Amino acid sequence: MIKPMDLLVVVPHPDDEVFGAGGTLIQYADWGLETGLITLTKGEAGRTLGLCAPEALGDFRAEELRRAVEILKVGHFELYDFPNGLPNNPVDGEARGHGFSTPQGVADHPEIVDLLLWRLEVLRPRAIITFGPNGSNRHPDHVATHRFVVKAVEKSGQKIKLFFYASPQPLPEYLEGWLPPNHVRHLPMEVLLQKLRAMAQHRTQALSVLNFMDRFSHRLASETFHLAGYEGPIQHELLWYARP
């Protein structure tokens, strides 16, 4: 039987792991704790930035993710091929979908709940990090992933600490479903540098990375989460429950 996992991150797209939890994954690994990552899509509906043919984007981003996973020192990695949906309000710039018939996305695959339930039974994580109810930016894949993870945890009957990405102050359009952070983690410089290097592996996401740096640079060196069911004072330490 596999040793129980200390921390499992579950997200829909390549790069979702590093923005919000990259430093946490690195530090957990450095402490000798068991970490894992489940990514549900290959992100094939994103931009190519001219780095590959549109039809090859999924495989290209999968390789970017594998390089990032190595830097993040993730101990257990699973990548699935569910369809990557488009955001409700795609940003201007390079067209998304590449002119192909774009599937609706993760939300159209409720069987993901049973898949996650199976993985929870095998991996037995002590804690999970995933998106909150608002999906951080209301991307349908983010919101659906939140919903599916919560259902899987409930069905599992396991006592799993459930952490959601929680920005300190969301933009007004993302207030609905926002949960305030009650765990704030400040990354030491050596961890931040590794996190930035992992972000750099997602070359097709360069515009997103630059936009994040421009608008939310203060969040690069800190990672903020909402622990479901926690009502105490804000924790400024590391994810305290699992520190050795």
Which structural traits does this protein have?
244 residues; alpha/beta; Rossmann fold; seven-stranded mixed sheet; 6 helices; globular; LmbE-like_dom_sf; Putative N-acetyl-alpha-D-glucosaminyl L-malate deacetylase 2; hydrolase activity, acting on carbon-nitrogen (but not peptide) bonds, in linear amides; GlcNAc_PI_deacetylase-related
Structure description:
The protein has 244 residues and is an alpha/beta fold. The chain has a single domain (7-88, 122-242), classed as LmbE-like (Rossmann fold, 3-Layer(aba) Sandwich), CATH 3.40.50.10320. The chain has six helices and seven strands, in the order βαβαβαβαββααβ. It has a seven-stranded mixed beta sheet with strand order 3-2-1-4-5-7-6, sandwiched between helices. The longest helix has 17 residues, at 140-156. The protein starts with 6 loop residues before the first strand and ends in a 17-residue tail after the last strand. Mean pLDDT is 90; it is low at 90-102.
* Beta-strand fraction estimate: 15-25%
What is the N-to-C succession of helices and strands? Answer: EHEHEHEHEEHHE
Give the number of domains. 1
The shape is globular
Query: Major β-sheet, in short?
Result: 7 strands, mixed
Briefly say what this structure is.
The chain is an alpha/beta fold.
SSE order and pairing:
Elements: E1 7-11, H1 16-30, E2 35-41, H2 57-71, E3 76-82, H3 112-123, E4 127-130, H4 140-156, E5 161-165, E6 183-186, H5 189-200, H6 206-216, E7 222-227
Parallel strand pairs: 1-2, 1-4, 2-3, 4-5
Antiparallel strand pairs: 5-7, 6-7
Helix pairs in contact: 1-5, 2-5, 3-4
EC number: 3.5.1.-
Pfam families: PIG-L (PF02585)
InterPro entries: GlcNAc_PI_deacetylase-related, LmbE-like_dom_sf
